[in-house]
Amino acid sequence: MKKTIALLPGDGIGKEVVDVTVDILKAIAEHFHHQFQFNYGLIGGDAIDQKGTPLPEETIAICKDSDAIILGAVGGPKWDQNPMELRPERGLLALRKELDLFANLRPIKTFESLLDSSPLKKEYVNGVDFVIVRELTGGLYFGKPSERIVHEGEDAVVDTLLYKRYEIERILVSAFEIASKRRKHVTSVDKANVLESSRVWREVAEEVAARYPDVTLEHMLVDNAAMQLIRSPKQFDVIVTENMFGDILSDEASMITGSLGLLSSASLSSSGLHLFEPVHGSAPDIAGKNIANPIATILSAAMMLRQSFGLEEEAKAIEKAVDNVLNAGNRTADLAEDGKAVSTKQIGEEIKNAL
Amino acid sequence: MKKTIALLPGDGIGKEVVDVTVDILKAIAEHFHHQFQFNYGLIGGDAIDQKGTPLPEETIAICKDSDAIILGAVGGPKWDQNPMELRPERGLLALRKELDLFANLRPIKTFESLLDSSPLKKEYVNGVDFVIVRELTGGLYFGKPSERIVHEGEDAVVDTLLYKRYEIERILVSAFEIASKRRKHVTSVDKANVLESSRVWREVAEEVAARYPDVTLEHMLVDNAAMQLIRSPKQFDVIVTENMFGDILSDEASMITGSLGLLSSASLSSSGLHLFEPVHGSAPDIAGKNIANPIATILSAAMMLRQSFGLEEEAKAIEKAVDNVLNAGNRTADLAEDGKAVSTKQIGEEIKNAL
Ligand SMILES: CC(C)[C@H](C(=O)O)[C@@H](O)C(=O)O
Ligand SMILES: CC(C)[C@H](C(=O)O)[C@@H](O)C(=O)O
């Protein structure tokens, strides 16, 4: 199989974790006789520094010419004081919108070998296995107006939570599709006792549910969901929710597994061009030190092989290798006891060898 | 001291927990030679059934004629299909707005005797002691438009996150005031990398911080905050945030202590008329069974004695009694092992006796 992969390392540890991931993809290509071509693009702070914009046109073109995209991370203190349009995050948000990457999938699954790393007790997290399906191109993130105004004669500021009905429908369809291949349970999270958008969300969820008679639908208020994720995370199979709620709940849920350094994600579009990235950020404090955990990005690449290229066996090979390397006790600094950590490159080598 | 207290039991377990709390307040009045007069008002589903509206004018009048308000809880499946204006929550939201109860304080403090009840490991929760200061009368909860619209020719829905600058300022002032009497650390939670309202929030936070040179201010993104609450809850002293973020984070934080049945809250206005209520809801599934945990409401009454009436000794007496009763091993069903639970009334009696 011949595929073109756009690589957007971005800022901070983004470069390090993407480098290691590319090594592994090359090993996969060799072993399974595929041809992967890698095209690098600039995004985030790096792009601001080199091109004066967080998402250069070239980068969009590189993505559109590719079969899938792997992103590292964006952001850092260097650009924190920049005006909004010149901040690294804008690059990522604009790319999501530009490529219509509306469905962000974040699997939360505990690793047998890392059960002790969670702040939660073992009996709460053992066997947790769910997916958060976050809407990624609507809601408060993109609604207009988003500006300072004078309201009733006073200084004020407004943001707008806007959804078109079809945007709500397609993300719910994604969630039901995923659930129908899993344990057939969808938890739709909203705030229907306060927000009109949530009431529409709930209606649409009911409509979509009617088309999937073998999948059960449960509605849960977002405040309760934030509690239930800690109280009994095993109850969930597929959680579907709007953009901002999904941002908050998925970072919270990451704590179940013990480290953000393990969590992969896929952002899917209807065009078939999808983006894969670790859930963690650019971690400027540890950037360039060869200590970041590359596993989240490596597992994102496995998601890419499965989801974008249909390479199930290859995806499994990576996941298996990661499991074996963790079972053998290899830990990067985020998970290791003092003085026992292996480096970014070392754990990458171990995983490559375990393939 | 002579005080008038408005009692709004509301729905579900609201009545049971308020009943027990009134018993305890009567015991306090007797013991410390105060006169508390109790005036009952209708709110929520109960008010809908009896008066056709979730917040009757009489109830507002009763509140305004009182020195403080104790609320039980509102809501239940009976009214879930009602149109928005006839839902129980509307009564609570309208009361918050009507009385300008803008500062919702939710203390999160672990009980020595209940450390094992948390889903989190003991070493994570032992010694946790912080307050969430949630803005309660602005943001997405009250912004207009909040309605179905046609947008770019398509069915859509919009909600509005609106803040006047002074609303942001006064909640931050509340937080800094509280922090200056505690460990002098404020964590201001926002989503400044996405929302314009958060950027104004951050600016105002900096302005207010400049007036409190002995209090340190830290900004934290809401997704990170959702994670940090689980990862290292001890880092927090005072968390201040907008309405919706506060709703989500405070329910999440309740899991640190192990049960929502223990968490009290105060909603403060600038007029001096404050409302006190448990953080938990009306729990329709266990209503009328005499098994609800009344401690959250009892501790809310203690907050009232301290905050509204300046009765520090009396507040401490209640808190001490609750501690003793928990230390002696008394547990309601939410915290007990099977078959070992005491009833709502029993634990109320125990606390009264321990005064
Ligand atoms: C960087 C930021 C804008 C982004 C978001 O809020 O979506 C990040 O937190 C994420 O979850 O991917
Ligand atoms: C009942 C509901 C409207 C309310 C809220 O969202 O504010 C509740 O969840 C709370 O936290 O007091």
UniProtKB/TrEMBL annotation, chains A, B:
Binds 1 Mg(2+) or Mn(2+) ion per subunit. It is an enzyme of class 1 (oxidoreductase). NAD(+) binds at residues 76-89, 281-293. It comes from the Bacteria. One of its GO terms (biological process) is L-leucine biosynthetic process. It holds the Pfam family Iso_dh. Mg(2+) binds at D223, D247, D251. InterPro entries: IsoCit/isopropylmalate_DH_CS, IsoPropMal-DH-like_dom, Isopropylmalate_DH. This is 3-isopropylmalate dehydrogenase.
